Amino acid sequence: MEKIADSSVLITGGAGFIGSHLAETLLRQECKVTVIDNFDHYYDPEIKWKNIEKIRNSSKFSFLKGSILDPESLLSVMRDVDVVFHLAARPGVRASVENPFLTANINIDGTLQVLENARKLDVEKLVVASSSSVYGNAKYRPTDEACPLNPISPYGVSKVATEIYCYTYYRLYNIPLTMLRYFTVYGPRQRPDMLMHKAISKVLRNEPPIIFGDGNQSRDFTYVDDAVQGTILAWTSKESVGEAFNIGGGGNITVNELLLLLIEECDKTGIVEPKHTEKALGDVQHTQANISKAREKLDYSPTIGVREGIKWMVEWYKAMYLSGAK
Q1: Of these residues, 155, 169, 182, 223, which one is catalytic?
Q2: What pTM was computed for the model?
Q3: For a FRET experiment, which of 114, 179, 185, 200 has its CA 20 to 30 Å from that of 123?
Q4: Would you state the pLDDT for residue 2?
């Protein structure tokens, strides 16, 4: 990784799960980090305040509570930065099924605002968060970036539209941008609506975790530190411009297998059993990233396996929510 100390960085959605980890990592590397986040009530805003609690007093950190849909707020923080990491979005496949208009408004129109400002301000680099949801039920696995995009949820559609806008602005205005298709990122600070967070919460309280469908659906889980590594490499790599990259863990595990590992790590084997409910609309059956392109062009190399990642996430959850309860 190239030396990036003293670079000026903006992270949209920087008080969220991935964004706050990215901010911490960049501050450790002596970057000047600005975050814009609107503290949307998709989940408790207090969680986001805690995400950035440890870095708010850093002399190299600045923060604006504002929306990417507000042109003036966005323009004010995009001035004079070396790189913009655009992570702000309306998350959630199931939430997008319930309110597709809000998902489209934030994810598509918000990205368009970022692109317009990047064009006006001649930003040196723009890294944009996309998602494995763009593939839908992918035609083959492991799935490489050439696989046809076939989203099956409004959220996935919004990310496809985001990528198309990015490609268009790259071709029209030569904006140096890179898109990252994250595969199920997990770890400390994961959103409370996501599978692992919800399951850990229930298992540690001796309640059955909920599995949508039969549990044979599988995912490529990516530990947050690996996702952050890939995100920074997308900035520093000279071969990343105008490209989309899979950022995954490189593995694959069924939800049933995952829950068994999680219950074991929580020391609840034989005490708690998962409860199955009907499959959720918009959920894909399988994801598995082919990360060869990211390995070759970004030097991306995930290092945290699922068993180790679960261990760290359970430890974090206990410290955060149960005050060390066993």
Answers
A1: 155
A2: 0.97
A3: 185
A4: 59
